[in-house]
Amino acid sequence: MDFQLLCSHMNNNSLSGQIPPELSRLPSLVHMLLDNNNLSGYLPPELAQLPKLLIIQLDNNNFSGSSIPPSYGNITTLLKLSLRNCSLEGPAPDVSGIPQLGYLDVSWNQLTGPIPSGQLASNITTIDFSHNRLNGSIPASFSSLPNLQRLSLDNNNLDGSVPSDVWRNIDFSGNRSLILDFQNNALTNLSNPLTPPANVTIMLSGNPVCQSQNQLNIAQYCQSTPEVNPGGGSIDNSSLCAPCATDLPLESVLKAPNPCSCGVPLYVDYRLKSPGFWDILFPMKRSFRSTCRRGSFSTRTSWKLPLSCGKKAQGSR
């Protein structure tokens, strides 16, 4: 029998030790979820050899002394890279070579050096470099991301100017919004006066620019906000993602590889002409729903489709 492991979902356990490099020998692996464990050691660069890998999620482990392998920037299939609160050191990862990356979180580590300036994927929604030791300026490439919803660079040593055009290529129709968190850095001035749309939230508290008397309207962006504790389990993605647009019947799809995705609900009707079928089906409705998830609909996606409700309705004869 040919056994193929598709998903490694071993998060929220008490696993310890090193991530086995041998996992790179599982060519069908698509999900690597090992967050909220007691893992240590180094991050295996060999994981970049997995040809179908969509998600790497290793939050809240202790890889002290380890750095993020540069090879992770070559995983062209990756949709989500989340290494939050892992005691990682070294440079920030350059993920500009990942064409479909939608979610990047390397916050609460000890990363040093500048933020890579390469152009990120156009469909990225969340970028979080917060709570590190990064320096240099904020890359201009962040102003060319049409689907960006949250950019968190707070609690670093970034200097230079506050960018005034991150939102220039974003369509704010419906209720789309953007959060820019630049708090507690060393930003000293504005490249241009800040005139963001109403859907944009800018946070600058803890920067020298907030002490400047000649910056118009700067005070409204300099109010401090509470910090988020990285411990206590995975962060609730719903609190980091902007709401779905209202110009379409969209709903949040938090279980998708990119947790800030929005999707249109899919409604499927099964017509059972004989009343006796329902009498048989109703006691087994849980099994029936599971069968639907494993059927032709779920083969079109890389994650399970949530089946939220089912009901009996009068049909035509």
Automatic annotation (TrEMBL):
<keyword id="KW-0732">Signal</keyword>
<dbReference type="Pfam" id="PF13855">
    <property type="entry name" value="LRR_8"/>
</dbReference>
<dbReference type="GO" id="GO:0016020">
    <property type="term" value="C:membrane"/>
</dbReference>
<keyword id="KW-0677">Repeat</keyword>
<dbReference type="InterPro" id="IPR032675">
    <property type="entry name" value="LRR_dom_sf"/>
</dbReference>
<keyword id="KW-0472">Membrane</keyword>
<protein>
    <recommendedName>
        <fullName>LRR receptor-like serine/threonine-protein kinase</fullName>
    </recommendedName>
</protein>
<dbReference type="InterPro" id="IPR001611">
    <property type="entry name" value="Leu-rich_rpt"/>
</dbReference>
<keyword id="KW-0433">Leucine-rich repeat</keyword>
<dbReference type="InterPro" id="IPR003591">
    <property type="entry name" value="Leu-rich_rpt_typical-subtyp"/>
</dbReference>
<dbReference type="Pfam" id="PF00560">
    <property type="entry name" value="LRR_1"/>
</dbReference>
<keyword id="KW-0325">Glycoprotein</keyword>
